[in-house]
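Good day; I would like, with your permission, to put a structural problem before you. What I wish to show you is a protein chain and, alongside it, a tokenised description of its three-dimensional fold. I would ask you to consider whether the tokens describe a fold that such a sequence might reasonably adopt. You will find the record immediately after this paragraph:
***
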Amino acid sequence: MAARAQPLPVSLPGLRAMRVASDAPFAGVKETFLISRFESGRSEFWTHGRTWTGAPGSIVVFQPGDVHRDLKREGPVTYQMIGFSTPEVDTLRVQSCLAADDPRGAPFRRLHDAVAVGADAFTLECVLAEVIAAMTAMRESKLEPTRPVRRALGLMRERLAGALSLDELSEYAGMDKFHLSRAFRAQVGMPPHAYLTRLRIMQAKALLAAGTKPKDIAPQVGLYDQSQLNRHFRRIVGMTPGQFFAKNRQSPAQVDR
């Protein structure tokens, strides 16, 4: 069964929701904050440097830039997913998966319940504020990357549109390139070059969604030319930048899995 995604109507601008059913493993980098609730099935997945297990009622919290890799699934998995962007929460690491009986999941469950019944915008705004407060309170320092990896991530985001070498990255991080590469893969979930490419394609998608023409994207995201952009974009997104641009003009992008 291929993944089936059903968009859900949401009255609060900036909040997006869908119900997804799939038995196909997922691997990728999250582009926004995502709060998922398992409705059926079980999944074992990797993020934040460790393995988690999701089951019916579990709440899964992702933030922009998180690598998510499914390791094992038991039967088709169905979940409701809510995505949003907010300047009110800095990049942080939170407990990624909360069991159905974990009291810390209450604000997240209230948000999912409100979306499911089609609550009005004011209700959703209030519940989302509780969710953001809960995420801030759940900060887990033990899940954060080490200082060299955090510095490497910061430099990648700063230099997204320019050239970057591993020597520069390791010097800025304060760790030799061999140990940095190993630590980065273990803590982030993929090697530095692969993660930087993902960040660049995420930025390319944002520019395209904002109306930038495909021919103008490559130099703005640190890629050499249109062919390199096309190659990476098609591999990661599953379509060319031109196809994504045209599709987004017809129907704005939904929640990223």
In short: The CA atoms of residues 232 and 246 lie 18 Å apart. The chain has a mean pLDDT of 90. Helices lie at 106-116, 121-137, 147-158, 166-173, 177-188, 192-209, 226-237, 241-250. The chain is about 40% helix and 25% strand.
